[in-house]
Every structure is written in structure tokens, then in C-alpha cells.
């Protein structure tokens, strides 16, 4: 009898939430989590159009469909990095094509941050300012780097931090890359090793624009001993208490005990 190999050497827990927030008329974020595939997609629909929710949903579904057809084995992180990149590029094309065929969707776009878990690694890809963080040994690290104008002026040395740039009046929400704007998109892709105790947070700016990194860290530290869903609910609640001016979407993945070698 053949038994299929699990996708990861570690036990993995997933929880996810999406919330309209307190101001927006609708939720234009999309979230798609497939624990059986070890797949997470978070997208934030944008564009002055009415169709942001169409773009974010299309991105999530295209990526999930593409990766669902990948090989069962999860030993080669670099290979899966390429699959992820291709899937995000396909999502970009799918959005452009849909917008061309549906005039009410003209100009729609979306950010995306997506990850796939393998044997001892997480491969992730992103475009725009939706983020991926990792909590490890009580340190919170932002693994993604925003494709935004405010991040660019910081990277170029005009300001030391995003906080400084913001105080100077630089807007938070000008993206330098998004899906759905050009036929070719530069996708950022990377892999990291995973270890017992890691907590990964995928989220839209409706969370990070409301809740400072240090608060995220405190809640995720508490999640190491409590259940993940308590932390997820706390994050949504906090973003709403802080104003809830945008849709709030997040996924948490906790890496548990090592199950096999
Ligand atoms: Mn948003």
C-alpha cells in the first residue's frame, strides 16, 4: 500500500479572517486558504473602479487553480518558487483579460501576497503592499517589502523610516506595482526555512495601516500559547477599534511539532 507523503515535515495550523471594517461599503479584499495544499492567498482589490473585489477574487482563484495542478512532492523549494511566480503572472494576465472583456471592470487591479508551504520551507510571492510577517523567538520580521512610493523614498534614503516619510506628508497608499495594470509584472519571490514555533502572518493594509507592528508582535506572541483563532479575532477587533477605515484581511500559519524526518 502506498501512502502519500505529507506536504510538510511539521504540523501546520491555519486560521484566516476577512472583515469589511467600519467605513467601506463593501469588502474588496479576497482570501483563499487551502490547508490541504499548504496554500495561502491574500489580495487587496484596488483601482478607483467598482471592480476591486473582482480583481482580488480572480487573483486568488487563478493562483489556487494553477498551484493545485502542481506536483504532489514538496521537496524542491526553488522549483515551487518558480511555480508561485508563474501563478502570479498568470493572475495578472487573467485580470487584464477580464477587464478587457468587461467594460465595467476597466482599470481594476489588486495587490497579492501568497505563500506555499513545503517540507521544511515556505515559498512566498507578492506584488503591492499586502504583507508577510514572521514571528520567531518573539521577534517580528516583515519578510515582504512593500511595492509602494513611501517604501521607495525610504529605500532611496530620503527618510529613515516610513513614519518619518508619513510625517512629511507622503501618502501611504500609492502603489508602485499591482496586478492588472501592465501585461508584464515584476513579482517578488523568496523562500525561507520554517521551524517549530514560527508564526506567519499574511495580511492586507487594512490591518497594518491600523495596528502598529509592535502590537502585532504582542498578539502573535500570545498566540504561541493560546489558540490561533483567538489571535486572529483579536487582530480584526483591534484594527476596527483603531478606526477600521479599510477592509481587514489576514491569515495565520503556525508551525508546530516536527512529525517526520
Ligand atoms: Mn486595503
Descriptive notes:
32% of the residues lie in helices and 28% in strands. The chain has 261 residues and is α+β, with helices and mostly antiparallel strands. It has one domain (10-258): 4-Layer Sandwich (Phosphatase 2c, domain 1). Strands 1-10-9-6-7 form a five-stranded antiparallel beta sheet. Strands 2-3-4-5-8 form a five-stranded antiparallel beta sheet, covered by helices on one side. A hairpin with a 4-residue loop joins strand 2 (29-34) and strand 3. Helix 1 (52-68) crosses helix 2 and helix 6 packs antiparallel against helix 7. It is globular, with a radius of gyration of 18 Å. The mean pLDDT is 94. Residues 44, 204-206, 246-247 line the site of manganese (II) ion.
List descriptors.
five-stranded antiparallel sheet, 261 residues, Phosphatase 2c, domain 1, alpha+beta, binds manganese (II) ion, 7 helices, 28% strand, globular
Give a short summary of the structure.
The protein is of the alpha+beta class and 261 residues long. It has one domain: PPM-type phosphatase domain (Phosphatase 2c, domain 1), CATH 3.60.40.10.
| DSSP strand count | 10
Helix content: 25-40%
Name the CATH superfamily assignment: PPM-type phosphatase domain
Largest sheet: 5 strands, antiparallel
How would you sum up the global shape? globular
- Alpha-carbon Rg, integer: 18 Å
Summed over residues and divided by their number, the pLDDT gives a mean of 94
Strand line-up of the largest beta sheet: 1-10-9-6-7
In whole angstroms, how far apart are the ends? Answer: 21 Å
Please provide the ordered H/E string of secondary-structure elements.
EEEHHEEEEHHEEHHHE
CATH C-level class: Alpha Beta
Class derived from helix and strand content: alpha+beta
Level-2 CATH architecture: 4-Layer Sandwich
Bound molecules: manganese (II) ion
Amino acid at each position: 500500500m502506498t501512502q502519500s507523503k505529507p506536504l510538510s515535515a511539521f504540523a501546520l495550523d491555519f486560521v484566516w479572517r476577512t472583515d469589511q471594517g467600519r467605513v467601506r461599503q463593501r469588502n474588496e479584499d479576497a482570501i483563499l486558504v487551502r490547508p490541504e495544499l499548504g496554500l495561502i492567498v491574500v489580495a487587496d482589490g484596488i483601482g478607483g473602479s467598482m471592480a476591486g473585489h473582482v480583481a482580488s477574487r480572480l487573483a486568488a482563484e487563478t493562483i489556487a487553480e494553477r498551484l493545485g495542478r502542481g506536483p504532489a512532492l514538496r521537496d524542491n523549494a526553488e522549483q515551487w518558487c518558480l511555480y508561485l511566480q508563474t501563478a502570479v503572472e498568470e493572475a495578472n494576465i487573467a485580470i487584464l483579460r477580464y477587464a478587457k472583456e468587461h467594460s465595467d471592470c476597466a482599470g481594476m487591479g489588486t495587490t497579492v501576497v501568497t505563500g506555499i508551504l513545503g517540507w521544511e520551507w515556505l515559498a512566498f510571492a507578492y506584488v503591492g503592499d499586502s504583507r508577510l510577517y514572521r514571528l520567531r523567538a518573539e521577534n517580528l520580521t516583515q519578510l515582504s517589502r512593500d511595492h509602494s512610493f513611501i517604501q521607495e523614498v525610504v529605500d532611496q534614503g530620503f527618510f529613515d523610516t516610513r513614519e518619518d516619510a508619513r510625517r512629511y506628508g507622503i501618502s501611504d497608499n500609492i502603489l508602485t506595482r499591482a496586478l492588472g495594470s501592465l501585461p508584464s509584472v515584476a513579482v517578488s519571490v523568496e523562500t525561507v526555512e520554517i521551524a517549530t514555533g514560527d508564526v506567519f502572518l499574511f495580511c492586507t493594509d487594512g490591518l497594518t495601516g491600523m495596528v502598529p507592528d509592535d502590537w502585532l508582535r504582542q498578539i502573535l506572541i500570545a498566540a504561541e500559547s493560546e489558540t490561533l483563532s483567538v489571535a486572529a479575532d483579536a487582530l480584526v477587533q483591534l484594527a476596527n477599534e483603531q478606526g477600521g477605515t479599510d477592509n481587514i484581511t489576514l491569515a495565520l500559519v503556525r508551525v508546530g511539532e516536527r512529525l517526520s524526518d
